[in-house]
Amino acid sequence: MATLHLMVGLPCSGKTTLARALEREHSALRLTADEWHIRLFGQDAEELEHDGRHHLVEALQWDVGSRALELGTDVVLDFGFWAREEREDYRSRASQLGASSEVHFLDVPEPELLRRLAERNARPSALAFCIPERMMRPWIASFERPTPEELQRRDSQGAGGFGDVEARRR
């Protein structure tokens, strides 16, 4: 059974580093929205179009990821998933495809996040956004921490997915 891995945390919490490890460990497809976004649109974090563009990138990545789950391949979505509602939506989607889901929460204290942000901003990269601290602070305040229940692995309850495709072929 395929598993959808949701990377949950704020910028600079270590999501992408863990996502890469999970990618190797599970032979998974890793989809990191920031990497695609920067390649397509550049360092646009402060531009008005940024959020709309980012939603488009995430939607395209979900199209790819959902197909991989249907084929029985684990998927790591490295989106951040700051809101519980968004996490639940993607977990439901996975279940409907016959996939399990896991939340990987990187809980980093605010002073450490800001230290890492300053370090990252000092070394611009084609893989991570430069984010002004003034943008980061409201994000820290609005982030919805996962509950202990959310951190539990969920096995699929839904129809669809690789196993059901195989059953229909027989």
Topology, element by element:
Layout: E1 3-8, H1 15-26, E2 29-32, H2 33-41, H3 50-70, E3 75-80, H4 84-96, E4 100-105, H5 110-122, H6 133-142, H7 161-169
Parallel strand pairs: 1-3, 1-4, 2-3
Helix pairs in contact: 2-3
Primary descriptors:
disordered C terminus, 4-stranded parallel β-sheet, 7 helices, 51% helix, 170 residues, Rossmann fold, alpha/beta
Structural description of this entry:
With 170 residues, the protein is of the alpha/beta class. The protein has one domain: Rossmann fold. It has 7 helices and 4 strands, in the order βαβααβαβααα. The protein has a 4-stranded parallel sheet, with helices on both faces. Helix 2 packs across helix 3. The longest helix has 21 residues, at 50-70.
Helix content: 40-55%
The helix/strand class is alpha/beta
H-E order: EHEHHEHEHHH
Radius of gyration: 17 Å
Shape: globular
Figure out the total of helices: 7
Largest sheet: 4 strands, parallel
How far the N terminus sits from the C terminus, by CA atoms, comes to: 18 Å
Number of domains: 1
Number of strands: 4
Spatial strand order of the main sheet? 2-3-1-4
Question: Mean pLDDT, nearest integer?
Answer: 92
CATH topology group: Rossmann fold
Runs with pLDDT <50, length 5+? 159-170
Share of residues in strands: 5-15%
CATH class: Alpha Beta
CATH superfamily: P-loop containing nucleotide triphosphate hydrolases
- Named at the architecture level, the CATH assignment is 3-Layer(aba) Sandwich
